[in-house]
Design brief:
Strand order of the largest sheet: 6-7-12-10-11
Order of helices and strands: HEEHEEEEEHHEEEEHEHEEEHEEEHE
Structural class: alpha+beta
Number of helices: 8
Length: about 300
């Protein structure tokens, strides 16, 4: 595999070391890539050797099985970035927070709303990450994708419309054979972008005060609900067209609920935290309990924002 990829490949590498939850068993094989060519070679090697593969970004929003992953984990690392006037071309493994600070340094704006969202730009595209009613997909010019086919790995280009961006969603969630490799953004010039760094820091301090950043977690466990007339009885909870999942969990009396080493945060009910020794099974059981209690009490079905791997 090292010969096929041309990079160092690790065996039995603990995946928990690369996730914000600090949960997950070993990867049978593990490699870090920093550009589209390295990613393409890694995928081609997995296909040639008939191995399962999984693309790991920043490690947030994922829950990895205690058994780990029986195949090749391809870790996307910070890599290629090219800024030319208003066009930004970036490798999918680039840190979203770092990218935003770099483009602000070039007097480019538009992405400040996502400055304190953890993870990579590739993961942000995959899930159309956002905040305050905005999504990263709003600023996409095109997406370079590696498609897994019967004959090998093929490069494709997607327009914004073809990406089908929606609230916390994109077409890539429906097509695991399409791997986001590079992103081209078109960002507006903003001569006041530098001054927004102070606002970003204040927003980060506000988030830290409201969310349990002192414990490992995957971020928000459940998607907020899109407000509709069918949910009019909860109108007073509505914020910018959404009903906070954490509000339902809190009103169901589930703050502080524990199973094993996993707990519904007492600070923010939409966070399930790892108290130090949580297993993936603990978290799965707690997620199931929360969904059942909320459904029974409010007739509302919560949907996970967290992705499951290795189950």
């Amino acid at each position: 595999m090292r010969e096929l990829i041309g990079l160092d490949v690790l065996a039995d590498e603990p995946i928990r070391n690369y996730t914000t939850f600090k949960i997950g068993g070993p990867a049978k094989f593990f490699v870090k890539v920093q550009n589209k060519d390295e990613l393409k070679k890694s995928l081609a090697a997995a296909l040639e050797l008939k191995l399962n593969y999984w693309i790991l970004g920043g490690g947030s929003n994922v829950l990895v099985s205690d058994k780990g992953f029986d195949g090749l984990v391809i870790k996307l690392a910070d890599g290629a970035l090219d800024i030319s006037e208003n066009e930004v071309k970036v490798f999918a493994g680039h840190s979203l927070a770092l990218l935003i600070r770099e483009v602000i340094g070039k007097n480019l704006g538009g992405l400040e709303f996502a400055a304190n969202i953890p993870g990579t730009i590739g993961g942000a595209i995959y899930g159309n990450a956002g905040a305050y009613g905005k999504g990263v997909g709003d600023l996409v010019e095109k997406i370079e994708v590696l498609e897994i086919t019967a004959s090998g790995v093929v490069e494709k280009t997607f327009s914004p419309a073809e990406c089908e961006f929606k609230y916390r969603d994109s077409i890539f969630k429906k097509h695991p054979e399409w791997i986001v490799a590079e992103i081209v953004l078109n960002l507006p010039t903003d001569e006041n972008a530098q001054s927004k760094l102070d606002e970003i820091q204040k927003e980060w301090e506000s988030r830290k005060a409201k969310q349990p950043w002192n414990f490992p977690s995957a971020g928000c466990t459940f998607k907020n609900l899109i407000y509709t007339e069918e949910l009019a009885k909860y109108k007073e909870w509505e914020i910018k067209g959404k009903l906070p999942a954490g509000k339902f969990i809190e009103e169901a009396g589930l703050k502080g609920m524990k199973i094993g080493g996993a707990q519904v945060s007492e600070l923010h009910a939409n966070f399930i935290i790892n108290l130090g020794d949580a297993t993936a099974d603990d978290v799965m059981q707690l997620i199931s309990l929360v969904k059942t209690k909320v459904r029974d009490e409010f007739n509302v079905q919560l949907e996970e924002e967290v992705q499951y791997v290795g189950f």
